[in-house]
Write a structure and sequence with these properties.
The chain has 345 residues and is an alpha/beta fold. It has 2 domains: 2-124, NAD(P)-binding Rossmann-like Domain (Rossmann fold), CATH 3.40.50.720; 149-313, Dihydrodipicolinate Reductase, domain 2 (2-Layer Sandwich). 29% of the residues lie in helices and 20% in strands. Strand 2 (27-33), helix 2 and strand 3 form a beta-alpha-beta unit. Helix 6 (130-139) packs parallel to helix 11 and helix 7 packs parallel to helix 9 (211-219). The chain is globular, with a radius of gyration of 20 Å.
Length: 345
């Protein structure tokens, strides 16, 4: 049994972590923080977590450092303030903020409008995609859980880039996400129900911050320069991501070759499922789970490869990914606490 702290426990990511970890057979939730609801019980703030009578507290670095693992679900810029003091103790960290995802500290002013205050930790942080970084995650002190779009894109494209089956120099990504991806405290007009319902709109058209994560991950797999254009869209659903990637096949690769490469990489994976040719993923298949479904085809007219991935942005794109990493770091079956199917319909 390990003691786990959740920093930022009442945001969407935090409450999903609580939902997944409360019944986990080898985890004890020992310290939950919330600046907004300090002094209240979790079940008072979120009645759907009835029976979770754990008290919420303001953050204290010394107390967090006494836990075996600290899981952070806080806004950009906050983790870099917290993580150095936590790592000074014996705790190991899984962070879902963007603060340790990018290896190059000079990218943070451009993409996050902030200077990195502990750039010496960037080289140590391990990308939290178990299917590609399993051994490094198992021994890591600091895991940087990747962004939801980035998780979908890297899972869908990494085998094809690694095998040289697509041209990585001209990848187009069309992403569609549910509103929960904006977080619980966003008050932007676009996320209000009357604005978002029965509407689809693009955002961050001139550059989404998950783009450099995708480039970083794919570039590690090839000597060819990687170029990615990501256009995200907000769709009127609570959770889920459907990512469609367009790329030029290399070496005459057809749909069968693309799917064969994906199956060779993922057939033994518990959470990534490659679909038969002609079948493409739905977000509803992933709701509330840590699963990702991938399909692929080649457009008969243009010859362009089309690779699609669906996952739950709060699951495989966030809290589920973090729990999978936690299991690896604990040295137990990585599916512990995550072996569930989506509620359907």
């Amino acid at each position: 049994m390990v003691d786990v702290a959740i920093i930022g426990a009442t945001g969407y990511g935090g409450i999903e972590l609580i939902r997944l970890l409360k019944p986990h057979p080898q985890v004890r939730l020992s310290y939950l923080t919330s600046e907004t609801y300090a002094g209240k019980k979790v079940s008072e703030v979120y009645p759907h977590l009835a029976g979770v009578d754990l008290a919420l507290s303001a953050f204290d670095a010394a107390r967090a450092g006494q836990c075996d693992f600290v899981m952070l679900s806080v806004p950009a810029g906050k983790s870099m303030e917290i993580v150095p003091s936590v790592l000074a103790g014996d705790a190991r960290v899984i962070d879902v903020s963007p603060d340790f995802r990018l290896r190059d500290a000079t990218l943070y002013p451009r993409w996050y409008k902030l200077e990195h205050t502990c750039p010496e930790l960037l080289a140590e942080a391990v990308t939290g995609i178990p299917e590609w970084h399993r051994e490094q995650i198992a021994s890591a002190r600091l895991v940087a859980a990747t962004g939801c779009y980035s998780a979908a894109a890297q899972l869908a494209l990494s085998p094809l880039v690694a095998d040289g089956l697509i041209d990585p120099g001209d990848i187009l990504l069309d992403g569609k996400t549910g509103i929960s991806g904006a977080g619980r405290t966003s008050l932007s007009l676009a996320y209000h129900f009357p604005e978002a319902d029965e509407d689809v709109c693009a955002y961050s058209v001139e550059g989404h911050r998950h783009g450099p994560e995708v480039v970083q991950g794919l570039q590690a797999l090839t000597t060819v320069g990687v170029s990615v254009t990501l256009t995200p869209h907000l769709v009127p659903m609570s959770r889920g991501i459907l990512l469609t990637a367009y790329a030029r096949p290399a070496g005459g690769a057809d749909a069968a070759a693309l799917l064969d490469a994906l199956r060779r990489r993922y057939d033994d994976e518990p959470f990534v499922h490659v679909l038969p040719e002609g079948t493409y993923p739905h977000t509803k298949w992933t709701t509330g789970t840590n699963h990702c479904f991938i399909g692929a085809g080649v457009d008969r007219s243009s010859g362009r490869a089309i690779i699609l991935a669906a996952l739950d942005n709060m699951g495989k794109g966030m809290a589920g990914q973090m729990v999978q990493c936690l299991n690896l770091m604990m040295g137990i079956d990585e599916s512990t606490g995550l072996a569930r199917s989506a509620a359907y319909p």
